């Protein structure tokens, strides 16, 4: 029985690392140098909250030049805007996005980390937008369509 108790701190120390592995950037993966001509399919985390009104939604984002077209799959909703992309490291990048609406502009950012060269996690942060809550944050998974 004594042997079991000394294993508890060891096991407790390993649990956070085991749960964090799918959500951290893998050092061997690489995000693209640029997004021009590329397509992402993103799936928002499924848990609805006031700051995650699009829970469980899947979108397709097509990038061309410094513009993008975001299509909410399964609906006729389409949004377009401008973006700036920058890699922070081989396995991490940021996309700053801007959409103009009659009710006001939407400014948001996707922070990308990769698990493979074609898949990973994103953190969505909206800094301002016409739909409440104006400031919000949630996450999800992204898939980059191969060329």
Task: Give a brief description.
The chain has one helix spanning 2-20, and strands at 39-44, 58-64, 67-72, 78-89, 92-101, 104-114, 119-128, 136-144. By secondary structure, it is mainly beta. The protein has an 8-stranded antiparallel β-barrel with strand order 1-2-3-4-5-6-7-8.
Descriptive notes:
With about 150 residues, the chain is mainly beta. It contains one helix and eight strands, in the order αββββββββ. It has an eight-stranded antiparallel beta barrel. The N and C termini lie far apart (about 55 Å). The N terminus is likely disordered.
Distinctive features:
single chain, 147 residues, mainly beta, 8 strands
Task: Write the SSE topology.
Layout: H1 2-20, E1 39-44, E2 58-64, E3 67-72, E4 78-89, E5 92-101, E6 104-114, E7 119-128, E8 136-144
Antiparallel strand pairs: 1-2, 1-8, 2-3, 3-4, 4-5, 5-6, 6-7, 7-8
């Amino acid at each position: 029985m004594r042997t079991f108790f000394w294993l508890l701190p060891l096991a407790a120390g390993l649990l956070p690392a085991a749960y964090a592995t799918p959500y951290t950037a893998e050092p061997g993966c690489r995000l693209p140098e640029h997004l021009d001509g590329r397509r992402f399919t993103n799936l928002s985390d499924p848990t609805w909250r006031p700051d995650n009104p699009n829970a469980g939604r899947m979108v397709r984002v097509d990038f061309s030049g410094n513009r993008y077209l975001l299509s909410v799959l399964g609906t006729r909703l389409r949004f377009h805007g401008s973006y700036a992309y920058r890699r922070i490291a081989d396995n991490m990048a940021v996309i700053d996005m801007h959409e103009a609406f009659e009710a006001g502009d939407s400014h948001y950012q996707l922070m990308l980390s990769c698990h493979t060269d074609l898949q990973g996690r994103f953190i969505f942060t909206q800094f301002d937008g016409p739909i409440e809550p104006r400031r919000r944050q949630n996450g999800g998974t992204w898939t980059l369509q191969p060329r």
